[in-house]
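Fill in residues.
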């Protein structure tokens, strides 16, 4: 699996299909400062580092780790 990171788009894929994405938009915030939206967590906005962490969580879940896994749980705590 790989996470491709660009200036305004991030994509997690397994080589055959897209598993999760993150998209930056200036319009995501009221003051037009911009934020990232992540495909699996549509109810909140992220900064760049948080978007990368969210895609990492998606990758760990895709390989079978549950939210109870200490690594996944730690990353999820960082996102709260």
């Amino acid at each position: 699996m790989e996470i491709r990171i660009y200036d305004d788009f991030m994509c997690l894929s397994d080589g055959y299909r897209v598993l999760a994405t993150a998209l930056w938009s200036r319009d995501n915030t009221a003051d037009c400062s911009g934020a990232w939206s992540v495909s699996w967590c549509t109810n909140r906005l992220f900064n760049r580092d948080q978007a990368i962490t969210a895609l990492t969580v998606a990758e760990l879940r895709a390989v079978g780790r549950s939210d109870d896994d200490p690594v996944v749980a730690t990353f999820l705590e960082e996102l709260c």
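The chain is about 30% helix and 35% strand.
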